[in-house]
């Protein structure tokens, strides 16, 4: 009886320490995000004083209003959404098809192609040759310049291939015995079993497309109809910074630009950029830990 009581006390102490550690981890994880949110919702001139934690001292939506007053944000948001969805779908499909091909044991040249693909992870042609290639393909000034150059991610191919190699080979062999061809095996067996890794790759590709702005600067800076949200937000940040620098020189302009500051604009832009990803992530997160192959044939 005494041993049982001591065990219960030790369990309670362990649970208390565990809850305390997890609470600390939660605070450390959430604090930066809440601090950014508080600064984005705080009055700009009050933000300059510093000392903000997780709650705005002077609540205002002026920072967000300032951002969305700039032209091109609506078009940029639309293009970014289309780019992210189309790019993620095409990127996942091409990477999964190539990964399935490289995983086939009867494919004699799979080692050669694996080496060639791996070399692209260590060496690249550089910015200028890449630009010349894009220009020769006639993609400059078009929306497809966002999709075609990144249509296949070699790193994604290797990740998916490793996952496919871990699947029971008996599943494919039994399907072949039933008369299934490679297309049927790929669409009806491989893809359903690869949902966790495909969801992970889709998130990586989508975040890459959503956060990209430099390709817009290189290839579509003169095409407002093809602009992206990130590029427009960079322009907003640069214009705000320029206005602040000008105000420090010319005090007569203080009245017109005193409503915003670069720090508040940065945090507001961070929230605008981050929120769509945060809204999508919970729907994909479950696939990261879900065991799709539970109950399947084990080799």
Automatic annotation (TrEMBL):
<dbReference type="Pfam" id="PF00528">
    <property type="entry name" value="BPD_transp_1"/>
</dbReference>
<keyword id="KW-0813">Transport</keyword>
<dbReference type="InterPro" id="IPR035906">
    <property type="entry name" value="MetI-like_sf"/>
</dbReference>
<protein>
    <submittedName>
        <fullName>Carbohydrate ABC transporter permease</fullName>
    </submittedName>
</protein>
<feature type="transmembrane region" description="Helical">
    <location>
        <begin position="81"/>
        <end position="100"/>
    </location>
</feature>
<dbReference type="GO" id="GO:0005886">
    <property type="term" value="C:plasma membrane"/>
</dbReference>
<comment type="similarity">
    <text>Belongs to the binding-protein-dependent transport system permease family.</text>
</comment>
<feature type="transmembrane region" description="Helical">
    <location>
        <begin position="112"/>
        <end position="131"/>
    </location>
</feature>
<keyword id="KW-0472">Membrane</keyword>
<feature type="domain" description="ABC transmembrane type-1">
    <location>
        <begin position="77"/>
        <end position="284"/>
    </location>
</feature>
<feature type="transmembrane region" description="Helical">
    <location>
        <begin position="265"/>
        <end position="284"/>
    </location>
</feature>
<dbReference type="InterPro" id="IPR000515">
    <property type="entry name" value="MetI-like"/>
</dbReference>
<feature type="transmembrane region" description="Helical">
    <location>
        <begin position="185"/>
        <end position="210"/>
    </location>
</feature>
<keyword id="KW-1003">Cell membrane</keyword>
<feature type="transmembrane region" description="Helical">
    <location>
        <begin position="12"/>
        <end position="34"/>
    </location>
</feature>
<keyword id="KW-1133">Transmembrane helix</keyword>
<dbReference type="GO" id="GO:0055085">
    <property type="term" value="P:transmembrane transport"/>
</dbReference>
<feature type="transmembrane region" description="Helical">
    <location>
        <begin position="143"/>
        <end position="164"/>
    </location>
</feature>
<keyword id="KW-0812">Transmembrane</keyword>
């Amino acid at each position: 009886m005494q041993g049982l009581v001591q065990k219960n006390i030790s369990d309670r102490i362990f649970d208390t320490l565990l809850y305390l550690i997890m609470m600390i981890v939660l605070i450390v994880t959430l604090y930066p995000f809440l601090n950014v949110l508080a600064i984005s919702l705080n009055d700009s001139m009050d933000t300059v004083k510093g000392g903000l934690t997780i709650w705005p001292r002077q609540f205002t939506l002026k920072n967000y209003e300032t951002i969305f007053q700039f032209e091109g944000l609506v078009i940029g948001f639309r293009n970014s959404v289309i780019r992210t969805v189309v790019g993620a779908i095409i990127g996942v499909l091409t990477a999964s098809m190539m990964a399935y091909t490289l995983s086939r044991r009867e494919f004699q040249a799979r080692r050669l192609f694996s080496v060639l693909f791996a070399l692209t992870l260590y060496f690249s042609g550089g910015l200028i040759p890449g630009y010349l290639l894009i220009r020769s393909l006639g993609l400059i000034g078009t929306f497809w310049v966002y999709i075609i150059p990144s249509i296949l991610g070699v790193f994604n191919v290797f990740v998916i291939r490793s996952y496919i190699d871990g699947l029971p080979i008996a599943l494919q062999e039994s399907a072949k015995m039933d008369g299934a061809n490679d297309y049927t095996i790929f669409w009806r067996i491989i893809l359903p079993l690869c949902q966790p890794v495909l969801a992970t790759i889709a998130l990586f590709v989508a975040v890459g497309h959503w956060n990209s702005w430099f390709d817009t600067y290189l290839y579509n800076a003169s095409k407002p109809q093809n602009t992206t949200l990130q590029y427009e937000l960079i322009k907003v940040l640069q214009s705000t910074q320029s206005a602040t620098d000008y105000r420090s020189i010319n005090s007569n302009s203080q009245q017109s630009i005193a409503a915003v500051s670069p720090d508040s604009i940065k945090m507001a832009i961070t929230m605008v950029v981050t929120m769509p990803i945060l809204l999508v992530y919970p729907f994909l997160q479950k696939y990261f830990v879900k065991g799709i192959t539970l109950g399947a044939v084990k080799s």
